[in-house]
User: What shape does this take?
Amino acid sequence: MARYGDYGKIDFSGLWSVMEKKKLNKQWLRNHGIHANTVAKLVKNENVTCDVIATLCYLLDVQPNRIMKFVPPETEPATIPGGTGGDPTIKEGANDD
Assistant: This one.
């Protein structure tokens, strides 16, 4: 079974940039319903739920690409069944619905 990070990670540095521009801090997130443990996970670029991402986007009035980005793994993982396995001949978004 794959562990978080085997196929890349999500970098939340954009979240902190957006918050800095809006003059907001981590306490503001906690005051607006983001649990302290979740804030700690965001700081460490750890796994959070889609609900957390949706809440952040709602609170900050931004799209997800403003607060997070995908960072590929440093080493090539095993191919995901049904996935492209990093095949460069597959165009980005080709399987998006």
In short: Residues 1-97 form a domain with the 434 Repressor (Amino-terminal Domain) fold (CATH 1.10.260.40). The first helix runs from residue 13 to 21.
